[in-house]
Amino acid sequence: MKKAYNLVNISKAKSEEAVQSICIKQIPFTGQKQEFNRPPTRTVRSMSQSSTDSFASVHSDTSDDESSPRDKLQKSTKGPSDFCIKNISQADFGRKEIEMAEQEMPALMNLRKRAGGEKPLAGAKVVGCTHITAQTAVLIETLAALGAQCRWAACNIFSTQNAVAAALVKAGISVFAWRGESEDEFWWCIDHCVGTETWQPNMVLDDGGDLTDWIYKKYPELFKNLKGVVEESITGIYRLYQLSKAGRLSVPAMNVNDSVTKQKFDNLYFCKESVLEGLKRTTDIMFGGKQVVVCGYGEVGKGCCAALKALGAIVYVTEVDPICALQACMDGFRVIKLSEIVRHIDMVITCTGNKNVVMREHLDKMKNGCIVCNMGHSSSEIDLAGLRSLDLKWVHVRPRVDHVIWPDGKRIVLLAEGRLLNLSCSTVPSFVLSITAATQAMALIELYNAPEGRYNKDVYLLPKKMDEYVASLHLPIFDAHLTELSDDQAKYMGISKHGPFKPNYYRY
């Protein structure tokens, strides 16, 4: 196996020299034998912005102006003129949201202090496509503090916090996004974020692969200048592996999704809290005694199941992987096929990242009032095409809540039109997002500063030492004190006393 070495040099402090400057063995990842295709077609009904969200969805627009932002002349007294957002006048409110998020994102604030003087991203031109929230804004402004120029679009039509987008623009970041974009507007924003003759990116930060795919399809010449792609979602990682397997990956790519700090914290702990918040805010449901099916028992599914079980719900799990199925059984959940229980359930939550998980045939059999939602990144898990057939009627009830009504009067409750529940329907825990955002920042720094030849045109895992470093940045907030290995103990274990403490194949 080939070896390459990564250098983490965020601080010159002697006590941290071993933590931040160390040789890491790089482990390439193999791809899957799947054809690389355009992302699933987004079928989206345009939603009125005049509907007033609850304050907790804060970030919705309560303006009566229903016109598309791209039809308006965009002006800002400060910041760039090249942007397209809902309402620049909300910038001050958005700044307060960002400042609140900063209090719960210690790693990024620490990186600003430690690496700001060195500017490890000086000269970097980062084009990003992620959820545009207060937490992501802290990441974007951290990248800017480290020397990068940034342009940003949204990876989800419902998750953009309009006030935050305004604050970013006022701070000098070109943003093309607003909450409630249509399908056409979604791709228009990505195109205008990338397609400018006066600014060309040399780094990509993507969430879902839509931005990377768009560049491949419409602006392939940009890959000549790109130093790397950082991807954080399982959907986007699948696409990159498919490209790599087909020999079509043009630049090195860093797989942040499978780093331990992302998988265990963003996927597990984050979803365990945010799934309940999204459901409560949209449906006001009480969970005790409800029968719920969670499709998929990966880290996201594990978090959802744990949260639902804690509130007294009766939880079933569907799985294709026998190892995950066995874990579900040992955790006290019954593993079944959806078709076996679909007539009796009160709620189904998809967490697979796959497509066609809940089909029209399942939806036809569900009882009146069943809630259907998705916690996976992809919007293709629920058969929306089947729900949009002419025999069914849609009634918009409140923001991100629709009733789909059958001819006999039966209705199901569909949340966020099958898109990501937590980021579309609620706010998110800043602390957990700090962990994910820090891994993204570290991956960008590594790829941007890597010497020629360190990375080939392949997909790489974030080095374990960087994973451990990101975790260490968050321990002080808990006043946690790590035990130090003695020289004799380290020798006995065959590791450095400063880490990494586990091999890359270790499963936490």
Description of the structure:
The chain is an alpha/beta fold and 508 residues long. 36% of the residues lie in helices and 13% in strands. It has helices spanning 17-20, 91-103, 106-115, 134-145, 162-170, 183-194, 210-218, 234-245, 260-283, 299-310, 322-330, 338-341, 360-365, 384-387, 421-425, 430-449, 464-474, 487-493, and strands spanning 125-130, 149-154, 174-176, 203-206, 228-231, 253-255, 291-295, 314-318, 334-335, 347-350, 371-374, 393-398, 401-405, 411-415, 459-461. Helix 4 runs parallel beside helix 16. The longest helix is centred in the middle third of the chain and has 24 residues, at 260-283. It starts with 16 loop residues before the first helix and ends in a 15-residue tail after the last helix. The model is unreliable at 1-64 (pLDDT under 50).
